[in-house]
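Please discuss these two lines.
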Amino acid sequence: MMADDMGAQDMGKGGGAGAIGGDMGAGAFTDRLKGAGEAMKASGQKMAEGGSTVTLRMLDQAEANAREAFAAMREAASARDLSEVMRIQTEFLREQGNRSISQAREIGELIVQFGRDAIGAARNQN
């Protein structure tokens, strides 16, 4: 047999899929591809959900930061002297620094968690 004839024979026996997917037949290979597509879809959905959660949490944090800034400005506006304004400003900056660290940690944890969820969703589909 010529090489071309052997290739055609192999294709009739699932050889075309075997060239890509090892020893599995065309049907098994197609099923695997379908499973991989479903896993990617599930993973993408989890990532989208996680992205929305992170975005909403960041908006909540920004709102809280704005409230705190306006409260500090009101307090400074009613201060009796410059030393009181400086104390208010220093306290606000210290608290804002602590808030920023806490908020960054919270967002980082959310990102890690939705990454785990996305990977878990992809694994559960296989």
Summary: The chain has a mean pLDDT of 78. Helices lie at 3-12, 15-21, 26-77, 82-125.
